[in-house]
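Feature request, filed as a ticket because there's no other form

It would be nice if the structure record came with a short human-readable summary line next to the tokens. Right now we just get the raw output. Example of a typical job, pasted below so the devs can see what we mean:
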Amino acid sequence: MDKEEEKRVIARINELYHLKEQRPLTEAEQAERKRLHKKFIANFRAGFRQEVENLVIVDKNGREVTSEKAKRAQRRKGLRKD
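Raw output as currently delivered:
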């Protein structure tokens, strides 16, 4: 999901939230809210996973202490040569 689509999804989720505060949502609105929420969460998780997988951890002595799991993910993506 690109930034523009993400903004539209968030705006619509917020719009449905405010409608819910005023009146009960219709079944169609509830289904739309659920679908948009799932889409937003999936996008958030994908972005968060990418950030964590690209993370390199260095201790106070300057030695890399990145986990092996993260290193494997980085190698799969071609981000590591070791």
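Something like this underneath would help us a lot:
The CA atoms of residues 29 and 35 lie 10 Å apart.
The chain is about 70% helix and 0% strand.
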